[in-house]
Each structure stands twice: as C-alpha cells, then as structure tokens.
Amino acid sequence: MHFVRFAGSRLVKGVIVLFAIAVLNFFLIRAAPGDPAMVLAGQAGEADAVLLAQLRERFGLDQPLLYQLWIYLKGYATLDLGFSYRQEQPVLTLILDRLPATLILTGAAFIISLVLGVLLGALAARRAGRWSDSLITTIALIFYATPLFWVALMSQIVFALKLGWLPNVGYETIGAGYTGLSRVGDVAQHLALPAITLGLFFTALYARMMRASMLEVAGADFVKTARAKGLPPSIITRRHIARNAILPVVTLAGLQAGQLVGGAVLTETVFAWPGIGRLMFDALIQRDYSVLLGVFFVSSAMVVAFNLITDIVYRVADPRIEVAA
Amino acid sequence: MQLWKKAAAAVIITGAATGTSNVWAQAPKTGDTVHVVVQPEPPSLMQGLNQNATTNMVAGNIYESLLRYDEKLNPQPSLAKSWEISSDAKTYTFKLQEGVTWHDGKPFSADDVVFSLDKFLREVHPRWRPIANNQIDKIEKVDDLTIRITLKQPFGPLMLALEPASAPIVPRHIYEGTDYRANPMNNTPIGTGPFKLKEWRKGSYIHLTKNENYWLKDKPILSEIYWHVIPDAAARAVAYETGKVDVLPGGSVDVYDVPRLSKLPNTCVTTKGWEMMAPIAWIAINHRNGILGNKQFRQGLMHAIDKEFGRDVIYGGLGKEPTGPIASKTKFYSEDVKKYDYDPAKATELIKASGYKGEPIKILGLPYGETWNRWAEAVKQNLADAGVNAELVNTDVAGWTQQTGNFDFDLSFNFVYQLGDPAIGVARSYVSSNIVKGNPFGNVGGYSNPEVDKLFAEAAVAPTEEKRQELYTKVQQILTDELPVLWLLELDFPTIYRCNVKNLVTTAIGLNDGFRDAWKE
C-alpha cells in the first residue's frame, strides 16, 4: 500500500515535470537563430520569397507562435508526437525506426561498463596500493580523460583499417542481404567498436567510483566487527563491503540508463550508427523542430522513469532505505 | 620505452600489410554494384521540390530533364531527342524520346513535360520560376512527342537551364491537381531515370536499383547503387580505405585528406563534372555598413587577402584564383579586368586613405567544416595585418543562413554556383532587383549600380553570343573595379573513386547524372 502511494505520487510529479519540460523545450528551440525553411533553402543554394513562404506554410510556421504551442501540446496529450515536414514522416515513426539501433548500442555499452566497471573497481579496492590497483586506476583515468571521438577514430584506424578485424562504420553490411543468424553476427561485428568505445568511458567512471566507495566502506565500524567475528575476507568483501559500496554506482547507473534512449551523439556520429542521438543532432542542425521536440520528450520521459526505477532498486540493494514519497 | 617503440613500429608495419590486402577481402564483390558516400543525408529525393546538393546527386539518377551537357556545356539529348531553334531565337521545339515509361509503368509523353515546366516547376522551383514568368510566353504540346516553348524575347540561357536540378520532368499523373508539397508520393519518387528508388533506410543508406525498362537500350550497366550515409569526414575516408565504399563524391572528405587518398592503389581522382556548377568562393560584403560601402576600403581588403595562401594551404591547392564574377570554366569569362595582387603595404595604404577609423569588422565564417573555419581565421589574420580590426563570428548552418539572408553581417563567406550561364547563376548576386531578404544566395550585400543592372538585363536577352560577350566583358570590368564581393577561389571538388569504376564522370554535372553510363571492370 505504502509503495503504491509512493509510485502514484511520483507518477503525478513526473507528468508535471514532463509538461514543464515540453513547454520549455518549445521556447528554447525557437530561441535558436533560423528556422527549418531557411535551413532547407540555405542548403539548396537558391531561394526566393515565394519558396520560403511555401515552405513555412507547409511546416505550419506561418501560424502564431502560441497557436503552434497549442497544437504541439494538444498532440502530445494524445501521444501524437507530430510530423516532420523535412523528412515527410511522422516523428513517432522516425524515432521508432532508430530505437532498435540505439538500444542495442547503449544497452551493450551499459552492460559492458557496469559489469567491467564494478568488477575492476572492486578488484582495485581489494588490492589497494598494489601494482594491479595502480594499473586499473591508471587505465581508468586515461579512458575517463580521453575524448570519446578520438578513441572512436583511433579504434577505427587500428581495428578496421590497419588490422582489418572489424568494419569501421555502419550498422550492418549494406547490400549483403543477410538474414537470421548471419545478420545477427553481422550486426554484432559492426556493434563491437562503437559499443566498446562508448562502454570504456563509463567503465572508467564506474571503476573509479566503485573503488573509492569500497575503500570508504572498508573502514566502517561494521566491517571491523565482521572481521572481529572471524568472517573470511571474501565474505566480508562480498556481503558487507560491496553491497554497501554499490549504492553510488546504482545512482550513476540510473542516470546512464535514463540516457539509453537518448542515444550517444558522438559515438553514433563517428561510427555512422543510425541511432536516435544522430536523429536528434541532425534535427538540431536542420531546426527540424518536431523531431527535436519528440526526441527531447521521449528522452526526458525515460529519465523520469529511470529515476523512479533507481529509487526502487535502492530499496532492494539496501532495505534500510525507506522509499518515501 | 625502447621496447614500446619497437612494438608500436611492428604493429604499424604488419598493420599496413594486412590493411592493403584487406581492401580486397572486404570489398563487396557482387559484380555490378557501386557503393557511394552521400553526405549530408538528403531531406527528400523529390528533385522537383528540393534541390539540396545531395538530393541532386542521388535523385539526378532517378529523374531526368530534357537535356544533358558535356563538359564544354554543349547540350546533349536526354528526354529530348532533338531540338530546333527558330531563326528569330524565340521558338524552341523539342522532340521527345520514344518508348519512355515512368518507374510505375505509366507512359511518358509531352503532357508530362508541359505539366512540369508550365505548372509544377513554375509554382515550386525558385530557379525555374523567374525564367518561366519573365522569359517564356507559352509552353505547349505539339503532339504526344513534341513540345514547343515560345519566348517573349530571345533568351540564350534557356538551353543551359534544362539540367535535372534546374528543370526535372515530374510525372503529371501523380502530381496534377494535388498539393505538390503534401503529396504522399514525395517519399517514393517516380521518375524516368536509369535507376529507381528501392529502399531508403534513414540514417544508413539509400538503395537504387536498375530501371529494367529504361528507354535507352543497354543502359544502365550497373544494377545497384548504394549511397552510404556516413556523417564523420574522417570515418568516410577510412570507409574508402577499407573498401566499404567505391566513390567519394567531391566535398565528401576534408581537403587535407585528398592527397593521401589519391595515392592509394587503384584510386583515380578527377576534378571534372563541376563545369555546370563551377562554384566560386567569395566573401560577401555588406555595403550598408559604414566603411564597407567605400570602394577604396574594399579594394584595400582585396589586396590584403592572400588568395594564393587560401588555395594552396587551406584548400589543398584545389582550384584556380578567380579574376572576377564569372568563372573561367564557363561561358563569357573575360580576363581583361582589374586584378588585385596580395600586397599588404598597398592594402594598408588604401584602407588608411579610405578614412577607416578602426571600427570592428565582423567576419561570418561558413559552417561547413574545418576548411572553412581555417579560411576565416586566415582572412582575419590578413585583414589584421592591413590594419583592420576584424572579429570572427561562428555559427551553424541555420545561423549562417539567417544572418546572411537577413543582411545581419559585415563580411560573410559563401560559395555560389554559376549554373552554366551568367544570366542564371551570376547576375543574381549583383543586380539590385535581387536585394531580397531571406535568400542567402541573392544580392545580400545590397550592392546597387544601375549600369550593372542594365548590362546584365541586356546581356541575358542579347540575340548573339558575340553581343552577349561584349556586354558581359563590360560588366566584369565594372564589378572588378567596384568589388561588390571579394572573390577568393574557383573551387575544385575532386571526386575520388576506384579506377575500376569506369565512365563515372562524363557530363558537366558529374555524379548528378553520371551513373547512367558508369560500369565496373
């Protein structure tokens, strides 16, 4: 009962937050210079007043701003995310088309980074001060500090160009017409470089956080007690230290999970991965308002949802935490 | 440290060896399929409604126009089989090809041509509209395979205005009586061209497939074209090196990658195929803004800019220094004009004499990647050397379009297509009737000279080529003296491709209609 009330009130708050975000996004985008008609005309190398007027009418930009806002909110209330006049497709279709590629990429990176990060962080903490700890923390620091696009390009040059092990860009081999298992294998090959590149950054983040958190907990009184009781170190690490140390990692993972749907603009761009991050970035450059607002909305809905899930996971990880509304 | 260096060297050497062999291992060996880069992804493939550079590149193989052009810009048959021009140069009669069908199987006829030129393009096409409204008296069907265009007065440039991007022929049975821009068939373009749209995976690729019923027997020779959407320039270069793509169209890799890629095995490079567009890069000047309206000051700027450095260092040596508003590759070019060497001392002198008081001059760069950023930086330095207090303004495509189109700039980088004839591609940037807000390719600087207006107007409709040349020579002399804009470079856009792709660039618009005749060895 307690939990239902909690979830209900969070849901209501979530809807209010989403409404505020939707309105804010609308005005934020309009504050940027140019409009979609001008961008289209600018890219075409030719325009006259008639063409611009035709395009603005088609895009609905000739209507008063508040009327445009009203149409937009009315659509969203019925889960209609609008229509991209630039791409001649409903926004929902565009997003759903890109969703699988994005989820595969961000999901794979999420799993890689969470598993590797927690393991490496725990290992480093147990061996604090020894060479293996230094190695892990140094590598983590390097990947944490190196710009993603540089790692992405270097991995293409080394693994695709010099070694020839993996394809450098794309989601699958274009024109190969693979189906079934061979298609899965093909996509997996294409996935390897972007997923690892994206995953490495978060691995570094998790490893550093896990290590710091473990070391902090290791000095706590209850760990001393456990040791005094004569428990073997492996059990102490697993049950007493790791479980308590993982909470900050869960918080961070919750944040990352919220961005799963938003995609990863940089990684998707450098690897020509047809995900939502690129859809959003292109829409931004092109001032494709409806697509941009659609992606923003879906992403913020995911963040709200994952915040809620994170709170629930907290309770599972640490029963002392009362989920309060 | 020593060991690490050795290991690194070993990796690079073995890597290089496997790298080259791999070009072949990974190359798609499906016979007559060609993989081409397309960037940015076109917004639409309905060429009548959208003329973005990449729309034209892909859709120019789906749609056709009446004419094609060889590299000397001589008209060649396309949908028009032959043509006749009356002795008073006012009536053009085009005989159309027989046995042409649309991709949906419906027959093509003179009705489609009349509908396209008289209704569809007149309404939606910013380049065709002024020609149709100002020059053409009527467009009529003579019989099912003949059309006639009657002009109000002789207009020589008409024969250069009929390439696929300027006047694509669209299917009447799909568009007549509909709201053209809202027609759902815009997503599935139906043309008469050698290739049909098979699939468009947004964000990944566009797949064109052979039109089995193409009117020209034995064409096209290729059966599939895949256009790969790869947003990152460095990744595009690697995609070519690993064999994923066979063709890098002009402008798809950074200029500093061109020399490296050109040296790869089985790689050919050509700068041909841009004779129709013949783009000139320049800096537009806002004549409304104080000192910028002063001719002496502008001449000082022109002497201050090191155009050779721009070409050789920034643009990789690809192109030719322009002497004025008309590109040397196109008709009616004249060399007999005032020239401006790079001369900082003279520049400083002129700028000082013009009464310049050190007010800040803003330079708006072109948001098309690193090359253009570097160029703006170099020009800023050149101007600073001549005593001009120059500042850089950075923005994105939308910002650039808005600021340039709405005259909200001091100096703005741009490059503009010449489109084969000065009446179509050149006059628009200098005549006062084209000082119109919203169009970054109009006369954005607000330059206005009644004599120039008159010369351009007369030259467009002058009855003979000699007369036109005389008028255009005069206009070039005036413009190079008054400097409405600062011309920087006649840009070359090298196409990089595997040498076993044959006959790729055979026309004045290159890849835009090149795949009809291309084949793979």
Average predicted confidence as pLDDT of chain B: 90
Radius of gyration of chain B: 24 Å
Poorly predicted parts of chain B: 1-30
| Gross morphology of chain B | globular
Topology of chain A as a string of helices (H) and strands (E): HHHHEEHHHHHHHHH
**Subunit organisation of the chains:** heterodimer
- The CATH superfamily of the largest domain in chain B turns out to be Dipeptide-binding Protein, Domain 1
Give the strand tally of chain A: 2
Classify the beta-strand content of chain A into a percent band.
under 5%
Q: How many beta-strand elements of chain B?
A: 21
Chain pair sharing the greatest interface: A-B, 60 and 72 residues
Average pLDDT for all residues of chain A: 86
Outline the structure in words.
The complex is a heterodimer of chains A (325) and B (521). With 325 residues, chain A is mainly alpha-helical. Chain A contains 13 helices and 2 strands, in the order H-H-H-H-E-E-H-H-H-H-H-H-H-H-H. In chain A, strands 1-2 form a two-stranded antiparallel sheet. With 521 residues, chain B is an alpha+beta fold. In chain B, 31% of the residues lie in helices and 19% in strands. In chain B, the strands form 6 sheets. In chain B, strands 14-18-13-17-15-16 form a 6-stranded mixed β-sheet. In chain B, strands 1-10-9-8 form a 4-stranded mixed β-sheet, with no helix packed on it. In chain B, strands 4-5-7-6 form a 4-stranded antiparallel β-sheet. In chain B, strand 15, helix 11 and strand 16 form a beta-alpha-beta unit. In chain B, helix 14 runs antiparallel to helix 15. Chain B is globular. At the A-B interface, helix 2, helix 3, helix 5, helix 7 and helix 12 of A face helix 1, strand 10, helix 6 and helix 12 of B.
